[in-house]
Amino acid sequence: MKSLRGTDRIQIGGVFGRWDDAVGPTVAAHVRPVRLDDGVLTVEADEPAWATQVKFLSGTITTRLAEVAGVRIERIEVRVGRPSRGSSAASSSPTP
Q1: How many Å is the Cα radius of gyration of the chain?
Q2: CA 95 remoteness from chain centre
Q3: 8-state DSSP, 93
Q4: Would you state the pLDDT for residue 64?
Q5: Cα–Cα separations (whole angstroms), residue 78 to 10, 32, 34, 52, 74
Q6: 90, pLDDT greater than 60
Q7: If we measure between CA atoms, which residue out of 11, 29, 32 comes closest to residue 85?
Q8: d(CA 66, CA 29)
């Protein structure tokens, strides 16, 4: 929870606390929320392929976060971070 500006703790707790429920275990294993600020959710993917996948799924993810966590997200920004522990190239790339 790096940013609290413009976003209340309930919204942040909803996104961070219900992330796995909103995106499912496969996406959650490779993508995590890192910041929520004024309706903009920044997420970090462990590999470029997952960053691309999240961009394609952004509409679904925003809808699921509204349903599961009661949070309205206007936009998702994606960045690539370090690979998660235990991930391998064969098992971590999303299938189309």
Answers
A1: 13
A2: 18
A3: S
A4: 95
A5: 22, 10, 10, 8, 13
A6: no
A7: 29
A8: 21
**Spatial separation of the C-alpha atoms in residues 7 and 39, rounded to whole Å:** 8
Q: Are 54 and 65 in contact (CB under 8 A)?
A: no
List pLDDT tens digits, range 1-53.
444 445 566 667 778 889 999 999 999 999 999 999 889 999 999 999 999 99
Interior angle at CA 91, CA 87 and CA 96, nearest 5: 130
Condensed to tens digits (0 to 9), the pLDDT of residues 48-85 reads: 999 999 999 999 999 999 999 888 999 999 999 976 55
Are 31 and 46 within 8 A, CB to CB?
Answer: yes
53-77: burial string, b at 16+ Cβ within 10 Å, e else: bbeebbeebbebbeebbebebeebe
- Which domains, and CATH codes, for the chain? 9-82 (3.30.300.180)
Interatomic CA distance for residues 43 and 45, integer angstroms: 7
